[in-house]
Amino acid sequence: MKSSFHGIRYFFLGIAVLLAIGWGMRAAERIEPASANFPRYTVVTTDGSHLVVTDNVKNQVYFYAIGPDEKVGDPLHLRGSADLTEVGKPVIAPTTYGK
Length: 99
Hints:
This protein is an alpha+beta fold. It contains 1 helix and 5 strands; from the N terminus they run H-E-E-E-E-E.
C-alpha cells in the first residue's frame, strides 16, 4: 500500500514538473527581444552643422553636414556612412555620398 502511494505521488510530481516546464517555455516565447526596447537610432554627436547618427538595426553610422557656404540651421546633407560590422578590422572604408 505504501509503495503505491509513493508511485502516485511521483506520478503527480512528474506531471507538475512537466506543466511547469511547459508554462515556462510559453512565457519565454512571449518575451520581446531586447532590441524591441532599444532605440532604432542613436545620435552620437551634433553641433548644428554636423550630425552623426548610428542605426542600431543595420549596424551603420551616418554622417550629415551642411555645405561649406551654408550657415548653422540649414538642411543637413548625407555625406557618408560606414558599416559597423567592420569594426576591429585594420581599415574601414566609408561610403561617401554627394558633395
